[in-house]
Amino acid sequence: MEGDSKKEAFRKYLDTSGVLEALTKVLVTLYEEPEKPQNAIDFLKSNLGAPTPAEYDQLKNEKEQIETKCKEVEAQLAAAVQELQDLKTAIGLNQGPAPGADVQQEQSTGAQPPEQQPAAATASSK
């Protein structure tokens, strides 16, 4: 009895996971083939979605080409970042605030440096 329940549980597992349906479809496809293939196992593999050796080699080559291109693009990015950094250094952007930045700050806050304050304001503070 225990063996039957294990078999039934396994059959239910195959059914709910879609294995029975996939195998049935591929076997029906093989049955309906007018000319039966020399190697039925290869036919089943290719129709179940497994890549053929030729497809595998093609995918492997594509992967290698993409990896090479990725390395090239990463190198170009690193060069562009370095060039940007060099340009910033050349114009002084990496050495503290840019010239005139304090003037822009004061204009936005409305504060004026002491030498630009009206004379009356300076005289009244004395």
TrEMBL record:
InterPro entries: AMY1 (IPR026060). Residues 56-90 form a coiled coil. It comes from the Eukaryota. Keywords: Coiled coil, Nucleus. Residues 111-126 have a biased composition (Low complexity). Residues 91-126 are annotated as: Disordered. Its main location: nucleus. It is found in: Nucleus. The keyword Manganese does not apply. One of its GO terms (molecular function) is transcription coactivator activity. GO terms for cellular component: nucleus. Belongs to the AMY1 family. PANTHER family: ASSOCIATE OF C-MYC AMY-1 (PTHR13168), C-MYC-BINDING PROTEIN (PTHR13168:SF0). This is c-Myc-binding protein. It comes from Chara braunii.
